[in-house]
User: Fold Bacterial transcriptional activator domain-containing protein from Luteimonas salinisoli.
Amino acid sequence: MSEPSPAPAMPRLRLLGMGRLLDPDGQDLSLQYRKGWALLGYLAVERDRRHAREQLASLFWPELGAAAARTNLRQVLADLQDVFRRLGLDGLIAADRDTIGLLPGRRSRALFDIDLLDPLIVAEDDAVEAVSGQSWHHAGLLLEGVRMDGCDDFEDWLQYTRQHFFRREIRLMERLRERYRAERRHPEAADIAHRLVRIDGWNEAHHRALMEIFAADGARHHALQVYAELERNLRRSLDCEPDPLTRALREEIAGAARTAGSPA
Assistant:
C-alpha cells in the first residue's frame, strides 16, 4: 500500500485575507500599486489562459480611455513582474504585446493559498490535511480589503469569487470536523467546530455540530452554553430565535442532562 501524500506546505503567495507575498526567507514583499493586488488575484484565479490587454485595461480602468488604461496596466504589470523576480518566480507571469497570463502547468500550482481550495489543483483529501495543519487558519475572504469603486465588472467577479472560495474552505473544514468526530477525537473536532462557528456564525448547523460534540464527550453544560450564546446573538441581532432543529437538539441535551443528574 502506498504511503499517503504529505499535506501541502503553506504557499508563499497569499490572496486570502490581507494579501501577502513571501520571499524564500519568509520576508514580506509589497506591491507599489493597489490595483496590483486586484490584477494578481484575477490572473491567479483565471489562470491557464491568456487575457487580452484591452480586456484587462477596461476591467480595471473603465473610466479611462483605451490608451491611458493600457499605460496604467503596463505600470502595474511591471511592478508585479519586478516583485515576482525578487520572489524567485521570474517568468511566471507571461506577457506579450497583446496578452497577459499566468503560465499554465505545475510551476504555478500550489504557489497560491487559493490552490489548496481548488480540487483541480490539490486533491480534496490532501486539502483537508492542509486545513488540519497548524499553519492553516482562516485569514479572511479573497483579497480582503480590496475595493475597486467604479470597476463594476471586477467587483461583481470579486464578490462571486470570494463566496466560491469561502464555501470551499467551509466544506473542507466540515469534512475535517466530521472525520475527527468519526474517530472520536472530540477535542480536535470541537476545535474545528469552534472555528466554523466563528467564521460562519449564522449557519446553525455549525452550532448544532458543536453542541453534539460536547454532548458526546459528556460536556452537556458546554453544549447548552453554545445554544444560549447563539440564542442571545440571534435575539440581539435579528430579533429571532434558533430554528426548530436547534431548539429540539437543545431540549434533547437538556433532558439527558436532567436524567443524568448533571446541571442543565
Remarks:
- The radius of gyration is 23 Å.
